[in-house]
Amino acid sequence: MIFDKDGTLICFGAGWTEWTKNAVDALTRKLQKPVSGELYSLLGYNKEEDRWREGLLCDLNQNIIDGLTDFLIKHGMPKEKASKTVMDHYTANDKTGLGIDKIHPLDNPRSIMEKLKTYGVKIAVCTADNTAGCEIMMDELKLNGLVDFTLCCDKEEMRPKPSPENIHLICERLGVDPKKAVMVGDSLRDVQMGQRAGVMASVGVLSGVGCAEHLKSADYVVPSIKHVLDLVLPQGYEEASINRLNMQVSVAATNH
Hints:
Blueprint: E1 2-3, H1 13-31, H2 36-43, E2 45-46, E3 51-52, H3 61-74, H4 79-92, H5 109-118, E4 124-126, H6 131-140, E5 149-151, H7 165-174, E6 182-185, H8 188-197, E7 201-205, E8 220-222, H9 228-232, H10 237-255
Parallel strand pairs: 1-4, 1-6, 4-5, 6-7, 7-8
Antiparallel strand pairs: 2-3
Helix pairs in contact: 1-2, 3-4
């Protein structure tokens, strides 16, 4: 099973809302033009409703940098100055450097992954965040040892979603046929990436940037990741998991 990160495993807005407000304020001051509404829309944030949708911020870092630079150029800033302005902001406000206090898990990713592992499911994370940001999440949520492979934006092999190459690479590394894989994410590009790769199912979750209408092309749309278990695990998996845990405890007690 392949999970997206932000909006799927952890709350999207917990970290990116503050980053986005800082970016819009800084870039608007540099332009000296009333373009904050246009910038928020470009990045995917509705400030009035405090709600996210799929926008530029869901993309790879370099594409975000290019998109913001193009925005400044479109509004009259010389190319060299625009590029420096965006890079200066990135350097001072690293998009991928969110601290632990910004990580708000959705459902209980560790518990969900433990249930999947009970049935021998291999787990991967495919994210537009970089390795450092992904590792912060993995450490905080104690997912190390549960996630078999991560594909992040600073990996040379990573392609912008919805490229199916990402899933093909993950499946190759894990020795899994893509037709037996499931992609889970909160954006349309997550859903499309899975479908283009020929996975068994692309599942959209409503816990992030995508709404039901936006994700309607998914094979399944569920409120959040805990509901994915009902789609992929056999009926009665909760009871089976408890029985397996009791068996493990009994064996451990006997060995002592």
